[in-house]
Design brief:
Blueprint lengths: L5 H9 L5 H30 L1 H22 L8 H8 L3
Length: about 90
């Protein structure tokens, strides 16, 4: 469970065709950078504060992410790309 698959799902629905290549590359890059950071510092963090608190910290981050997705990520079901772009632009 985590937010790793979220960029893969979202980029096909949110980006226009003319920017989809750059947007997909950017989302992929950011996803792998964040995965690297978590993997690199997990053992240091668990040694510093313990394994239990480390997982609780990750759980808190996931809960914050759930609220972010629920309140800020637009629903795209049944909408055209133009409708999604209007919603993201605040129109």
């Amino acid at each position: 469970m985590g937010f790793g698959p979220l960029p893969w799902m979202m980029m096909g629905e949110l980006f226009a065709a003319e920017v989809k290549g750059v947007a997909a590359s950017s989302a992929c890059f950011l996803n792998w950078v964040l995965v690297f950071i978590v993997t690199k510092f997990f053992s240091d963090l668990s040694n510093a504060i313990g394994i239990g608190p480390t997982f609780w910290l990750f759980a808190v981050v996931c809960v914050i992410g759930i609220f972010f997705v629920y309140f800020l990520v637009p629903e795209t079901k049944g909408k055209s790309l133009e409708d999604i772009q209007k919603e993201l632009n605040g129109s």
